[in-house]
Amino acid sequence: MTEHIRTAAPAGPTSASDLVREIYLAGPDGREGQLTTDLTALEDAVRAVLPPAVFGFVAGGSGTGATGRANRDAFDQWRLLPRALHGFTRRDLTLDLLGHRLPAPVLLAPISAQTAVHHEGEIATVRGAADVGLPFVLSSYSSHSLEEVAAAAGPGPRWFQLYWPSDDELAASLVRRAEASGYTALVLTVDNPSVGYRPADLDHGYLPLIRGTGLANYTSDPVFRAALPPNAGPEAVVRQWAQVNGNPSLTWDRLNRLREWTGLPLLVKGVLHPDDALLAVANGADGVIVSNHGGRQLDGAAAALDCLPAVRTAVGNTFPVLMDSGVRTGTDVAKALALGADAVLLGRPYLYGLALDGRPGVRHVLQCLLAELDLTLTQIGCGSVRSLGPELLAPAGPLGGC
Ligand SMILES: Cc1cc2nc3c(=O)[nH]c(=O)nc-3n(C[C@H](O)[C@H](O)[C@H](O)COP(=O)(O)O)c2cc1C
Ligand SMILES: O=C(O)C(=O)c1ccccc1
């Protein structure tokens, strides 16, 4: 299934200053045909190349789109307060997270059905992530099986995201396969008891999974296959998946079942309320991901960035807290870290890089993000991502003591 995939040698700069220098040295001709370095402009570029239904699925949100807009507004409402003449000549972007050292506090968020936007799908994504050394979180709903993605990743770090199916035997099988394939953490998504009300998808009558895209972990699973009728065709597969998909009866106390199935660290994704963060801690989670699913689930839900400080306060300083939803730039990463996140997950921007240019597109997006994060630390006067704090932020508007 993966033999058509190009294995382009990882190319390009290794640091922010390299990236910027290479671009200026290459001059305008060297930029011809290259993706923009403005990561907020990628969505428009993607709109021009994807079929409207696919674009609606990836870029769209739930309901009126209020939560998607709130995610961006929340970042814009904070201003950075730089300090001058700080003397830092080097910046340290590294982070130790759950026993692994990351080159920067950024992961690639789980995104389903990636062959809908590029024929290489998650294979290209995991390779683009590995080029930069950042962990890819593979969705349960991937277009290539978790074993194929692991093989393509090589030593690149990878986590597995679980949508807990209604059949525990299937859930256990997925989790055990992930552990056996070298995924080093498990992310349980809890903000999707059912798929959100998404007008774009409803108007197009389009969901990739219903078309059979994104079910590779199921069609390759022995438990799932055993439950299929003999000689089941694609329609029977989708029907069977629809039966086990979604699990609104899940409760916090069930997290201990996961502990019976795997020794992997467990993060709970999709927490907004500080009391849910506390329940995650109380039920043995190793981390939480503050997220509203990029505004795709509950329309009108609070912006993830707005929820972050209260979650951090609730769980204390040392418990791993990650966030996603609305991160678009290096300065966004700095703001999230200053407000209490240990790391962020990037969602749509890398998917847009994938849609536009496969593995090099993913790599480009990640390099641009890290370049701007690195430059942000220099400009703000901070020697390490670990020392970003609220003293470097101010709400928009006039400041009393500035
Ligand atoms: C097309 C698409 C598919 C997604 N699929 C999943 C998924 O399978 N599992 C999951 O936990 N989150 C999924 N998400 C949510 C992302 O993991 C992440 O929370 C969100 O994209 C972050 O917001 P951002 O896109 O604004 O960066 C998906 C998001 C998009 C855009
Ligand atoms: O699109 C998503 O965000 C996602 O996670 C999902 C969940 C269920 C069905 C299809 C997609």
UniProtKB/TrEMBL annotation:
Keywords: Oxidoreductase
Gene3D superfamilies from the UniProt entry: Aldolase class I
SUPFAM superfamilies, per database record: FMN-linked oxidoreductases
Domain FMN hydroxy acid dehydrogenase intervals: 31-398
PROSITE patterns named in the record: FMN_HYDROXY_ACID_DH_1, FMN_HYDROXY_ACID_DH_2
Claim: Oxidoreductase is one of the keywords in the record: yes
Superkingdom as given in the UniProt entry: Bacteria
Pfam families the UniProt entry points to: FMN_dh
Cofactor(s) needed for function: FMN
Similarity comment: family membership: Belongs to the FMN-dependent alpha-hydroxy acid dehydrogenase family.
The name this protein goes by in its record: Alpha-hydroxy-acid oxidizing protein
